[in-house]
Amino acid sequence: MAWTWRFESADGTEVEPAVRPEEFTTQGDAESWIGETWRDLLEGGAQQVSLYEDDTKIYGPMPLNAES
Fold first, then answer.
1. What pTM was estimated for this model as a whole?
2. CA 45, 14, 30, 26: dihedral to nearest 10 degrees?
3. Contacts of 41 (CB under 8 A, 6+ apart)
4. Where are the alpha helices (DSSP H) in the chain?
């Protein structure tokens, strides 16, 4: 299993992340990474993210801006 993030603008268009993620082996690792890098991602243009396990969306889109 591989856990990955999809990075999007506010309208759902996929964007390149400011911080390049790895492919995570656990959901917890993926969530820890987003918790550490969300500010850099937001500043780089990503406004929301979705978490995938292989090709299955687990949740999202989740706004990176706490005010959203």
1. 0.91
2. -170
3. 7, 17, 18, 19, 34, 49, 64
4. 27-43
